[in-house]
Amino acid sequence: MILAAATLLGLALCGAACAGDHLYARDDHVQEYMGIREQPRVPLRPPHRPLIWGDLNIIHTTDTHGWLLGHQKLSWAEPYYSGDLGDFSSFVTHMKRIAIEKDVDLLLIDSGDLHDGTGLSDGYHGGVDAHESNKFVGRLPYDLMTIGNHELYVYADTYDMYTNFIPHLGGRYLTSNVNITIFDSDGKSESVPVGNRYAKFTTRKGRRITSLGVIFNFTGNVANTTVQTVHDMVNEQWFVEAIAEEPDAFVLIGHMPVSYDSWPTVFNAVRAVHPLTPILIFGGHTHIRDCQQYDGRSMGIESGRYMETIGWMSADLDAAKGKHDNITFTRRYLDQNRVTYEYHTHTSKYAFDTINGRSITYGLQELAARYDLSYLYGTAPQDYTLSQNPYPSNGSLLSLFIDHAVPYALAINNTRDSIPNIIIINSWALRSDLFKGSFTRNDQLTVMQYKDTFLYIANVASGIASQILPALNNPPAMKQKRDETEDELSRKTRDGAWLEEIDDRPGVDRREATSDKWTFGYVTKDSCPNAGHADDTLHTALPYYPAPYYIGSNPPNVTADTPVDVVFLNYLGEEIIPILNRLQKNKKYTMDDVSLYSPMLTSDVLGLYAQAKWN
Ligand SMILES: *[C@@H]1O[C@H](CO)[C@@H](O)[C@H](O)[C@H]1NC(C)=O
Ligand SMILES: *[C@@H]1O[C@H](CO)[C@@H](O)[C@H](O)[C@H]1NC(C)=O
Ligand SMILES: *[C@@H]1O[C@H](CO)[C@@H](O)[C@H](O)[C@H]1NC(C)=O
Ligand SMILES: *[C@@H]1O[C@H](CO)[C@@H](O)[C@H](O)[C@H]1NC(C)=O
Ligand SMILES: *[C@@H]1O[C@H](CO)[C@@H](O)[C@H](O)[C@H]1NC(C)=O
Ligand SMILES: *[C@@H]1O[C@H](CO)[C@@H](O)[C@H](O)[C@H]1NC(C)=O
Ligand SMILES: *[C@@H]1O[C@H](CO)[C@@H](O)[C@H](O)[C@H]1NC(C)=O
Ligand SMILES: [Zn+2]
Ligand SMILES: [Zn+2]
Q1: Which residue's CA is the closest to the ligand 6 atom numbered 1?
Q2: Statement to judge: residues 141 and 179 lie in one domain
Q3: Does this entry carry the keyword Signal (predicted)?
């Protein structure tokens, strides 16, 4: 089936047999490794049609979260995201050459969230998160970058960006509404922008650009960092001055969704002064492919997550100069793989890699080896997904985690093991699917990189304890939760709403979809013209099932008055205690009733389980 389809599309098929079929002498291990990479391990559908270039063009990444070696699993649609940062670097180099041949401008932009996501960023031993992996990001010729909320949860991470990463960007790492508090040379505390608040620069073709770098109204940032609301930012004197002069285009970047968030606040502030100046916006944070046009002379895109998507925007600025006409924009969401890259750069697989690209790939492999990321815990018998299978079900990662892995891991060396319990976690603590095949240290950190602990409240009557989970998931509690941690929940909600929407499209034949997984991938319906035609490679949408926000282990089979332990993740105590006090009046619970249940960290659970059950 797959073979037939691939042949129809004119793909050259190549298995292990042609892995060595290339022109390079294998005189060092970089080439040895690259010899394997030249061919995707499975045939991939190529892009649908060439990119449309304008006179100003942008390549966009966002929310890469450490996925610099790309997606390495063979379950669909993972191979469509199998490029790595070295491949991307080669792509950018070729695209820059093509831009010069076409005599047009090409910029490279990133919208933040470099931290938290894979072993490359989170597998460090006693260092700072993403310090090493960011060195590779720094080797790409980014014209503009900005800060994400994942750069702001741990002070050491923000400080590392401030001292080690940002200085290499030459004033083009923009943080218009984010400050860091540091000690000045006299030892006094001082709040300063983490990067630059804005940048004005001239492109190769002489276009004058003004840029800002804005984060959404984020409130979960660590002490000694400051996030100003977008609304307050646009009223600052520096902002008014920065946008006063009219450039040829505003290129606004930000860790902020292009839909349902504060971009209109920034857009309107600029428009009020410059009614016709082109405005190009590059957002992020909700991990989706999305597009908005705020008027006929502006466009904003958001380019997904986890190195799955490379965003593209082009604009014909010269044709609209001095006129009131709408500007012609295009946008495209590219699948991040070598077939995509070679297609758009007209290169063969043997001529594609640049020296810098190869060296980045090799360096990332070395880092993975240094962090021992291929350490094998066991072999997963099947895929366990966050949203491609219903919860509860045996294909649900949430079911695997809460019904099997957590109870197993928490019972190890635990004196309370004999006391019945109910374990409660938030489902968005799990960050990525777990795929069939080897389950390594890298996979463990990718699925759950956070190092949280489990706490408990003892002696709660089983009949009361079993009502906590339904209460957490009921709408008023959700409303409160949403206000507190708008960030992660908004990601989950909007991601979900969007995936649900594409899944409900008429005309998707479920049976065909499940029998031909080779076609699985993103099917995007955004709000810009030609919605439904912005995905670069045509796919069938992956199945989507929504999951509850909170999940719990199966209640023990005991009478309602039997005392049980209520076990939960360390940050859920403040939500569970008020609920417990509402459900019963015999005792007024406080945080003093909460103790450590086990010293085990959430990031260790799946490794322990895999070691015991998947060998
Ligand atoms: C950060 O804040 C704490 C108190 O909140 C203070 O003691 C510390 O000196 C601050 N650090 C810096 C770098 O300003
Ligand atoms: C950010 O730093 C600048 C420069 O020190 C300061 O003037 C400004 O008040 C700070 N902004 C915030 C929101 O703390
Ligand atoms: C951001 O904060 C401002 C000021 O508090 C508020 O008016 C605005 O609605 C907020 N934006 C969003 C998207 O929550
Ligand atoms: C220009 O763009 C606006 C906003 O996208 C749209 O409403 C309008 O119809 C367009 N005008 C023309 C002449 O295409
Ligand atoms: C999971 O459920 C499916 C469908 O009910 C079944 O075919 C499969 O064998 C089950 N897998 C396991 C590991 O139990
Ligand atoms: C459990 O205790 C044993 C014996 O003290 C120890 O070797 C083992 O590492 C412990 N396991 C875990 C997961 O802590
Ligand atoms: C629960 O326990 C009772 C009494 O021991 C037993 O009869 C019943 O079958 C158990 N139910 C389940 C679902 O295990
Ligand atoms: Zn993100
Ligand atoms: Zn984010």
Answers
A1: 413
A2: yes
A3: yes
The last residue of a domain, from among 321, 336, 370: 370
One domain for residues 401 and 364: no
Contacts of 495 (CB under 8 A, 6+ apart): 286, 287, 288
Report CA(255)–ligand 3 centroid distance (Å): 15
Q: Are residues 318 and 352 in the same domain?
A: yes
In a domain, 517, yes or no: no
Q: Does the C-beta of 415 come closer than 6 Å to ligand 6? A: no
Protein residues with C-beta less than 5 angstroms from the ion ligand 8: 63, 113
CATH of the domain at 14: 3.60.21.10
Ligand 6 pocket, mutate which of 377, 408, 412 (most atoms under 8 A from CB): 412
> Measured between alpha carbons, how far is 289 from 525 in angstroms, rounded to an integer?
9
Q: What is the mean pLDDT of residues 591-604?
A: 95
In a shared domain, residues 122 and 205: yes
Atom of ligand 3 nearest to the CA of 260: 13
Give the number of the atom of ligand 2 that is nearest the alpha carbon of residue 232: 13
* Residues, the chain: 615
Ligand 6 pocket member 411 (CB < 6 A): no
523 occurs within a structural domain: no
Residues 358 and 383 in one domain: no
Q: Where does the pLDDT of residue 4 fall: very low under 50, low under 70, confident under 90, or very high at 90 and above?
A: very low
DSSP 188: -
Q: Which residues contact 142 (CB under 8 A, 6 or more apart)?
A: 108, 109, 110, 169, 172
Paired residues of 313 in beta bridges: 58, 331
Expressed as residue numbers, the domain containing 334 is 2-370
For the chain, the domain total comes to: 2
Question: Would you say residue 511 lies in a domain?
Answer: no
Report which residue type is found at 273.
Answer: V
Q: Which residues line ligand 2 (CB under 6 A)?
A: 179, 191-193, 226, 228
Instruction: Please name the residues in contact with 396: beta carbons below 8 A apart, sequence gap of 6 or more.
Output: 384, 385, 386, 389, 390, 547
Per the structure block, which two tokens stand in for 357?
């690209």
Are 59 and 121 members of one domain? yes
478 — pLDDT class (breaks 50, 70, 90): low
Nearest ligand 3 atom, CA 486 = 14
Which atom number of ligand 3 is nearest to the Cα of residue 217? 1
